[in-house]
Amino acid sequence: MTELIVPLKRPIVGTFIHYSLITRLKNQNYKFKSYNRLLELAKASVEAGVTLFFFSIKDFDFKQNVIVGTSFDIGSNQWKQDYYPLPDVLYHRAGEGSNKFIIEHIEDILDQYQVMKVNYQSYFDKWEVYRDLSQIDETSKYLPYSVLYQEVSDLKNFLKQNNEAYLKGVRGGRGRWIFRIQKKPKGEFEYSYYVNKTITGQAESWEDLVTEIFKFFGETKFIIQKEINLIKINDSKVDFRAELQRDGEGKINIIGVSARIGKNQSPITIHSSAYPIELLLKEFLYYPDIVLKELMTKVHQFLFTIYESLEKVYGTFGEIGIDFGIDQDGDIWFIEPNAKSAKVSLMKAYDQETFHQAFVNPLLFSKYLYMKKSNEFDKGLMRSWEYEDEYENDRE
Questions:
Q1: Contacting residues for 258 by C-beta, under 8 A, at least 6 apart
Q2: Single pTM value for the model
Q3: What is the gyration radius of the CA atoms in the chain, in angstroms?
Q4: DSSP 188
């Protein structure tokens, strides 16, 4: 490893990932699920004209405030490591896990050096999102009724009013921490959750149900949410993941909306087949063209409203994955946002060009942020010089 001497194209974008991925890249190991996405981002950096490197918590030198960055060398077709300065822009793609406090410490240092971020924050808390969006008139109508679980009576009261409930951990995605409950006529409760596969069971009593819930969640905080009567194909639920991103001009774009068909009896639609939304509604559910056009107009309006409302609450985002459902009456329901979408459904549903653009846009937006900041600095410098000239003239 050598210290970089050649000038770097600005902005410098540091992409934060898990250290296990860095180890694999360093060893030229390409056989892991997210490799294609990392390579796609590396190639997109050339197109966007930015310097891109990947790093983890183990690559940050806290004494020197430099980073051992891993980048893809197109000439040799290999991954290489070099020393990099602190980036101009942070692109956070790492999960937190047990390293939460180290990650927060690194982010604090980057904040001190005014490093910009593609996304203002790297995660969403489901309860905070529900609480905040429910106070905004434009978004409250899209939210399924939810409460934060604090004691057993919260769930008991909820199930008095509803025959089904979804319990969802306030943090975590990819189908983790989701537990579905359905009341049965004779006082039993059917439940299901997903851990590597769909697990179903039946609790014969209220006490048995509570035991199963606490075995599943442990100390994890969760919300209780009313079930959405989602549209179905052959008894399989359908929901949607929309990928929205800001481009090189800072404008919000809908990159794609993927329809996800869940497996039968599964409480989630992760690990499912995916199609562009228009294709599924027209070819699978036979929506007439006029109905489809009206619905897509509503979907687009909903997506922009949710995105802009999240930004009002939390700050600017370069990209957000938005999960939503459409019920049997054609009403749209917000499910949850994702600040670090893996873009798996987009890859399954859309062509390579669309998938590639989803990696170019965050880097173009990084460039936009950098140029905007540089222009503001130059304007400030000009104002300072003008003030000094006026001061000198006054003295004369």
A1: 240, 241, 242, 243, 274, 275, 276, 277, 345, 346, 348, 349, 350
A2: 0.91
A3: 24
A4: -
Residue 102 sits in the same domain as residue 152: no
Map tokens 């529900």 to a residue.
Answer: 130
Question: Domain containing 174: what range?
Answer: 145-227
- Which of 79, 100, 117 delimits the end of a domain? 117
d(CA 128, CA 138): 17
Distance CA 385, CA 372 (A): 20
State the pLDDT at residue 176.
76
Q: Let me know: does 319 contact 362? Beta carbons within 8 Å.
A: yes
User: 7 or 208: which carries more pLDDT confidence?
Assistant: 208
**Looking at the structure, do residues 106 and 159 belong to the same domain, yes or no?**
no
Confidence of residue 391 (pLDDT cuts 50, 70, 90): very low
Hey, which residues does 15 pair with through a beta bridge? 54, 91
Q: List phi, psi (to 5°) of 272.
A: -115, 175
Query: SS3 of 292, please?
Result: helix
Contact yes or no for 38/24 (Cβ under 8 A): no
Q: Which of 84-93, 137-146, 184-193 has the lowest mean pLDDT?
A: 184-193
Both structure tokens of 276 = 């562009």
